[in-house]
Every structure is written in structure tokens, then in C-alpha cells.
């Protein structure tokens, strides 16, 4: 598949672009852009691609996507039939992560929103969104430019308070990490992302931050709510998905390139994390492109 960079900057020279989409089908292009994107699906069904996440979507969902995250909403085949009367309707909001200025997001009161925008690097699907938020998104288009800014800030504050959400793409696919104020965590993340393709262990990382193995395991699991091995395998599998989609190497070559010592363990971990085999994952993407 070919990944396209789209220009979502405002032609009206505004910091926020609000679009009301009402088409026979959504744009069938796997793409990314510098702007974050907040999407509310009003009417449509199909398959949503965000990074290495592939899920069905339907009317009512609200998703926040970070900058430079590949994504696409692909409608079901019935939308592309010659005599189809179906329509795909959505509200999409595009804005830069500094649309209100970095100093504003640095305010103590805005830290929850700043963290929300960082989480969006994986794509966030908000579950069970209340109708009042959906209505505010729908009405954004008709607001004056200055009111759009204040309304977006209000909406982000409300979304930040949502406890029920799903992070869509894996860390490995996005190939980045969220820096923390904790210097120890920064060292850990940097080491993992630089060495995940090699045979590293929790003991290696523990020594790096001057901790014994058992203390490090407790520390890491407390922070991430998962063991170090699981986190490492998610990074590896996420990167493997990226390589699979690039379609330049065989599955076996990719397994070794991502740090797995044998193909059997790679297939097993892929199944655990992605709930499908590498070949199924690849086939699922190919049939849509």
C-alpha cells in the first residue's frame, strides 16, 4: 500500500479547520498529516485503520488521532456499489498541537489536555460518548472562528475526563515514545527503542537504571500495568506490523529483524498481541488496498 502525506492546513489561515463530510463514501486513501484530527462518525460503517489497528467502525464513534499517525476510514463494499444510496457522514476537526500556543498547554490547569494530546499518538477511541459532546461536535462548523477555539478547548477538557477509552495503535508501529518527567523512565524507553531488535532482557534494563531484577519488575509493572516482557513484545510486534505493511521482506526475515529468536515464538506472540497470525494480518490489509 502507498502512504500519502496530505495537507490539512487551513486555506482560510485559521488555526482550526472544521469539516462536515457528507459523501457517498469516505476518502479511500491511507494517509497522514501534521495536524491532529478529531473525528465524529455521524452515519457510516466500515473498517477503521489507525497505525496497526484494524477495527470495524459504525455511527456514533469519536476518535482522536495524533499528528503523523497513518489512518483511514474505509467504508463497507456496499457503499461502492453503482446504485448505492448510502452516504458517509462525519465531522472532522484538524488542528496543530500548538494551536493555542505551547505556553498555554504548559499551564498546570492544562496538563490533563496536554497528556491527552500525547496519548493521541496511538489514536484514541472514546467509548460511550454522551450525546451532548456529539452535538457540540456537530455544531462546531457553524461557530465563529474565535468561538471554535474555545469550544475545542472545552471539548478536549471533556474528552480528557472520559474514563472509558481505547488506545488503538501499538507503540511499536508509531515508532515513538512519550517522554516522562521521570529520568529513569526516559532511560528505559530510550534503551528499549534502540535495542528491541536485539536479545535484551529485563535484567539488562534493570542494571542500566541501577535496580535489581525483582525491584525493576515491580517498578515497571506498576507504571505500565503489564510485565516488561509483554511491553517489549508489543513494541516488537508493532514494528513487525510496520515492516509487514511495507512488504519488503519475508515474514521470517521480519521476525528475526524485530528481535525474535525463532519464527515459532514470533508467530505465537503475534497471535497473542494482535489476535491473528502475521499472514492473516497481511492478507487483511492487502484485500483493502
Automatic annotation (TrEMBL):
GO molecular function: DNA-binding transcription factor activity; sequence-specific DNA binding
Gene3D superfamilies: Homeodomain-like, Jelly Rolls
CDD domains: cupin_MtlR-like_N
Annotated PROSITE patterns: HTH_ARAC_FAMILY_2
Residue span, HTH araC/xylS-type domain: 186-284
Cross-referenced SMART domains: HTH_ARAC
Keywords: DNA-binding, Transcription, Transcription regulation
UniProt KW Transcription keyword: yes
InterPro entries reported for this sequence: Homeodomain-like_sf (IPR009057), HTH_AraC (IPR018060), RmlC-like_jellyroll (IPR014710), RmlC_Cupin_sf (IPR011051)
Protein's UniProt name: Transcriptional regulator, AraC family
